[in-house]
Amino acid sequence: MAVAFSVVFLAFIASALEPLSSQPQLQCSACLAIAELVGQKMNDTAKLKTTFQASHRLDARNKVKRIDYESSELRAYEILDGFCNELEKDYIFRLGENNLRLFSSNKSLTRANYYGKNDKKELRSVSKRLRDICNEITEEDDTKIISLIKKERYLDEFQQKLCFSEGFKCCGTKKVEASKEKERERREKWLELKKVKDEKIKARAEREKRKKEREEEEKKRREESCSTTVDYLLFHFIPFNLRVEHTW
Ligand SMILES: *[C@@H]1O[C@H](CO)[C@@H](O)[C@H](O)[C@H]1NC(C)=O
Ligand SMILES: *[C@@H]1O[C@H](CO)[C@@H](O)[C@H](O)[C@H]1NC(C)=O
Signal peptide position in this chain (predicted)? Predict the structure, then answer.
């Protein structure tokens, strides 16, 4: 029974993050981005701290049970309302500080490059994939994220639980680490090819520059030799008495 359950559960996790499944490190980055933006909204809405009566039942201490807004389902739904649109707009595919590509809202990071044709194909409409992952986490499988929004208060713990341990477990796995390694190799290869290409372009520009210089020199030499001829003619055909520079 437990085995059957965990098999179903694992299948569920795997299908929950189908988009970008060939690049697990980006699935992880998508999850962290989602956690970051949810965290930001949690902090924004935490300021509206009010309590509301949850039910008419009395709790263990004979008090009417009241739920504060911060731990309520209502707040979670408000945070998730229109969430993926905002995420897609703010989180762009960029090159992170450690040379790994990620979804980030940090505008001082440059946009990421594709590392060749295959990579480009694999990451086709990458921001739409981010949105797909977002929809799956926040709509199709929302109970995990909602219970975490209700419980957690700090971003690092929220990210830890959503993406590493309790929720989607799409970060920190061997698969993710291996794909980071692959990503680094892909980048190295791309940089290597780019270097060769850039060098070729540079060499061609250099050749063209030299050719132009040679042509300029040639032109100047022709003009000079022409004016030497003129000097020569002038010297020989000017009457003797006007050749001031020669005295006999
Ligand atoms: C809310 O902001 C505080 C202070 O910047 C931060 O420590 C905390 O992690 C934030 N919480 C979430 C859920 O993002
Ligand atoms: C954004 O990226 C820059 C450059 O890597 C970094 O110095 C800065 O701390 C980042 N900002 C945030 C808010 O993470």
Answer: 1-16
